[in-house]
Amino acid sequence: MKFGIGASLRRKEDVAFVTGAGSYLSDRIPAGTAFAQMVRSPVAHARFRIGNADDVRAMPGVLAVLTAEDTAGMTFPCVGTADNSDGSPLQVPEFPVLATDTVRYVGDGVAMIVADSVSAARDAAEAIEIDWDVLPATIDLKASVEDGAPQVWPALPLNTAFDGHTGDKAAADAAFENADHVVEVELVNNRLVTNYMEPRGAIGEFDPETGRYTLTCGSQGSGIVRQILAGMVFGKDPEQFRVITPDTGGGFGTKLFIYREYPLVLIAAERLGRPVTWVSDRSEHFLADMHGRDNVARAELALDAKGRFLGLRADVLANMGAYLSQFGPYIPYGGVDMLPGLYRFKALHCRIRGVYTNTVPVDAYRGAGRPEAAYLIERLVDKAALELGIKPDVLRRRNFITPSRMPWKTPTGKVYDSGEFDGHMRHAMDSADWKGFTARRRASARAGKLRGIGLATYIEVCAGGGAETARVVLEESGDLTVYVGTQSTGQGHQTAYAQVAAERLGVDPERITVVQGDTDKYEHGSFTGGSRSMPVGGAAVSQSSTKLGERIKAKAADMLETAAGDLELIDATVRVAGTDRLVTFADVAQKAAADGDAMSETEAWTPPEGTYPNGTHVAEVEIDRDTGRVDLIAFTVVDDFGVLLNPLLLEGQVHGGVGQGIGQAMLEHTVYDEDGQLLSASLQDYTLPRADDVPNIRFETRNVPCTTNLLGMKGAGEAGAIGACPAVVNAVVDALHRETGLTHIDMPLTSERVWTALNAG
Fold it and tell me: Rounded to the nearest 10 degrees, what angle do helices 370-388 and 719-740 cross at?
């Protein structure tokens, strides 16, 4: 079909966005709203007491001052799981909606001011007088698990949130005993702040007649927000809540969670009898929204005399921040499950420790653990290639899982269904002109610069999170409406879902409207994350559309006095094949309405197994000897995403992900001082990639259809961010190794860090 699955259809939604007709949260602020301002802790760890709340309540324009007394008993859940190796259960410290008597990070929520204007709310927030009894803080991840470190939670020694493992320790130890070579690496996966384009916001409303709450917020799924907010925070029936998500400017995992402001604006709206609006500024984003990454990991690779991998051992410290966030413990566990990468490991064991520090809580950020795992294994493999004197592609090829071994069960229990790993690596190297690198390196040397090239392979698991449900409706106009509970935050869902329905129903996508982001408009809805929208939500849309097509044919068969099997769906008509006899979709819908027959179908699809996108990234860099500046000269990606829905949307997703990976590898770094003050708390201090930091990206695919997904899709939203970091670092290490013998350098690869490595005695 011209505009169905596989077509490079331009995004339907972009006309509204580029002409200013989008409808974001700040476009929906209701008349008569009050405005909220948060009061946040300026210290990392302290006992506190608010001294003048009543005086502030009496200030001009102030309508309410909410403190812990107003949210007593309300806490945020941690739904991410983690197992301790000794069998003890995960202990989850209380994460209150507002801190009671102790704050545990700079930005911790202390109070919410509600006033009749933004300026009045801000004035009142500044007038709050708080006595702080400052306590020792622990900030450094490694130091926090040492004896004598200040304790974030006194009942949890060594600041350990959980201490678990995956794999088989005895088998891994035996592999190392028989190894001819052992290679080690210790590395930092630097902490990141998401910095989506649209900061968070929330509008709370309450209807006293129905007793229903309405929350409007930018999110990654109004269904999951309602489920957790209602059942786990308020302890009420979800039917009492409506959650609306309008157009949302970016999410990247961080807008998936429940934040303090969401229950607070609802409490305030119920108390005041009017809507309450809170909109974050960029500084609050740095201080209050969940951060990402922040691991320190050590790994060892055992090899035999021929360079074949025998076993892997790793020890991962994952910073959880001051509290366990919504999915926080799951992130390192889910990531470590992908630690085997594309390789035939015989044995693997990894210890995983979650660590409390007096910093912003850490949770899912684009890739959610899989970038950390890919970075660790791909840096380790590259280091092994350097130490053993084997070309990096040769060492990988020698240890890849081959197609003939599929399906392949890894030592961590993941089952890869398909893939031709050597195929996409060779393709990427050819596209990057790997063979011509030597000549380019010599040209750089003549100009007084260093040049390096590096590759990284990756595999990730997608399409998790359980079932997704879709409802497809034939309207009386002959147009179609798709209702689905995932949420676009810029990915192009209006276009992508329309293409799936168009493929099954023979309708131009322009005649299909996709409805998301309102829990009153669909019965079941989950979330967008882990590249699940198209592999799972798209499968549900496909099934619903197919069933609706059968109903349309059945109704049209009665109208045309023929058998349904003789009919075909073309251009929003139902035709008798090989003739000009037809009825339009509008004719069918109107006849169905007259008969009292609603033309609607709802189907759910549950993935039987995760999907496993994989690929190769190749980076080429040039380094200035005098300044340490790294210029990313070229970047090549070859991915296996299975069946492609829309190559144009796909390329945009890969470009964006690569840009975020380049940002982490070269620029982004979240810095706290020893007292827990966030030094990089604005865009003056935290460096995001700009256009000239990202080269033109050569992107191609070499796809093998997924055998466990209804549509053959594997997912693509996070892939770019997973493969980019190790590819860039491997390229820089390649250049530095030729000059100094260096075999590792930590991210971000700032000019200062690279210059120091070049000039380190």
Answer: 30
What is the three-class DSSP state of 575? Answer: strand
- Which residues contact residue 6 at a Cβ distance below 8 angstroms, ignoring those fewer than 6 apart? 643, 644, 645, 646, 647
Order of strands, edge to edge, in the sheet holding 480-484?
A: 512-515, 480-484, 468-474, 600-605
259-298 pLDDT, tens per residue?
999 999 999 999 999 999 999 999 999 999 999 999 999 9
Residues contacting residue 137 through CB under 8 Å, at least 6 positions apart: 44, 45, 150, 358, 675, 676
The pLDDT > 70 percentage for the chain reads 100
Residue 141 contacts residue 317 (beta carbons within 8 Å): yes
Q: What is the mean pLDDT of the chain?
A: 97
Contacts of 387-395 with C-beta under 8 Å, sequence gap 24+, read 387/181, 387/183, 387/743, 388/181, 388/183, 388/303, 388/307, 390/307, 392/454, 392/455, 392/730, 393/425, 393/429, 393/434, 393/455, 395/307
Domains in the chain (CATH in brackets) are 14-21+464-605 (3.30.365.10), 32-135+194-288 (3.90.1170.50), 295-463+609-758 (3.30.365.10)
How are beta strands 201-207 and 212-217 bridged, if at all?
antiparallel
Q: Is residue 592 scored above 80 in pLDDT?
A: yes
Q: In what order do the strands lie in the sheet with 614-624?
A: 449-459, 614-624, 630-640, 697-701
Contacts of 126 (CB under 8 A, 6+ apart): none
The confidence score (pLDDT) of residue 714 equals: 98
- Rounded distance, CA 602 to CA 522, Å? 10
Q: Where are the beta strands (DSSP E) in 24-180?
A: 34-40, 46-50, 62-66, 102-103, 109-115, 130-134, 160-167
> Which pTM was predicted?
0.97
C-beta of residue 221 within 8 angstroms of C-beta of residue 255: no
The pLDDT of residue 523 is: 79
How far is the C-alpha of 521 from the C-alpha of 472, rounded, in Å?
Answer: 12
Measured distance CA(500)–CA(605) in Å, rounded:
14
Report how far residue 73's alpha carbon sits from residue 81's, in angstroms, rounded to the nearest whole number.
22
What 8-state DSSP symbol labels residue 9? P
Residue 2 binned pLDDT confidence (cut-offs 50, 70, 90): confident
For residue 193, pLDDT beyond 80: yes
